[in-house]
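Lab channel / #folding
Pinned by the channel admin:
"Please post every new chain as: sequence first, then the structure tokens as a reply. Keep commentary short and put observations after the output so the thread stays searchable."

First post following the new format, from NK:
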Amino acid sequence: MVEKGIETKHADADADVLIALTAIESSKTKPTVLLGEDTDLLVLLLHHADVTSNSLIFTSGNVSKVNTHIKIWDILKTKLLLGEELCTLLPLIHAISGCDTTSRMFGVSKAATLKKFGEHDFFKTQAQLLSNANTKDDIISAGENIISSLYNGAPYE
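Reply from TO:
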């Protein structure tokens, strides 16, 4: 491929971050479309994308038997709609509610997790603390508080 002038990149582990960051880098100089199947890619694009870039589109290109249309995400418009705060914490919300590398907790859906983020300041504050934690104890405390909140526990319970 290199001999044909096609740029290639190699990921040592999970390629999702490399794929998303490469698409974002491309969108800085030209409109870019990323074709992929993975929700993790969508989350990473929304988390890392710069809203001042050129058009950045994410699509699967596949039509299922259930959904008869192709899903097309305009990343920059979606990021503006969701807001910077949610997009910053989206990887945490996605991971804690189940993704490629973590199982969903019993009885906790993505929708419920997003709803909790939108409606409960304590959950949002703990998510921000977890994202910015500097010590092991801070990480454990914020993580415990988030999980307790997802199961409707009282703050600091």
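NK: The radius of gyration is 18 Å.
TO: also worth noting, Strands lie at 32-35, 56-59, 72-74.
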